[in-house]
From TrEMBL:
This is Transposase IS66 central domain-containing protein. InterPro entries: Transposase-related (IPR052344), Transposase_IS66_central (IPR004291). It comes from Methyloprofundus sedimenti. It holds the Pfam family DDE_Tnp_IS66. It comes from the Bacteria. Residues 1-124 form the Transposase IS66 central domain. Signal peptide: none annotated.
Length: 151
């Protein structure tokens, strides 16, 4: 789980009244405050700062608000603490997996439209060409141009 997905659960909540709306807004503000501190920590890892961030995250996830659905969402987020705060132990890791998700987005769209392949050979061919296409795009090359030269 990454931070974007963690917040998505909170964003999908539908507050029933003003106090629920305030509770959701406060939780979201705290969540993004922790995220921004994690970004700063990545640039300059300081042990004292890491323990402070962990403590704030634990307090956020154990907070009881007037909105029970928010409480449950925060509790689930707390269960993913190891994944969300992994950067405190390994500052070289990214805070989110957006690049990985972007890499497979074309493949997922094609799979949704066309369905799966009929054989292992078809799967291997699809995976190979999807990987080549993405690699060409990352290097600013034309995929078709590459295929003409390579084959």
């Amino acid at each position: 789980m990454c931070w974007i997905h963690a917040e998505r659960v909170i964003n999908r909540l539908i507050p029933l009244n003003d106090s629920h709306t305030k509770a959701v807004d406060d939780a979201r503000d705290q969540l993004w405050s922790i995220y921004h501190d994690l970004k700063a920590y990545k640039l300059n890892p300081v042990t004292e700062q890491a323990s402070s961030i962990r403590q704030r995250f634990q307090i956020l996830c154990s907070t009881k608000t007037c909105y029970e659905t928010l409480n449950q969402a925060l509790g689930r987020m707390g269960k993913n603490q190891h994944e969300l705060l992994r950067v405190l132990d390994k500052p070289y890791l990214p805070l989110h997996n957006n690049l990985s998700e972007r890499d497979i987005r074309d493949y997922v769209k094609k799979r949704k439209i066309s369905g799966s392949t009929r054989s292992d050979a078809g799967r291997k061919a699809r995976d190979t060409f999807a990987s080549l296409k993405k690699t060409c795009r990352k290097h600013g090359m034309s995929f078709w141009g590459y295929l003409k030269v390579a084959y």
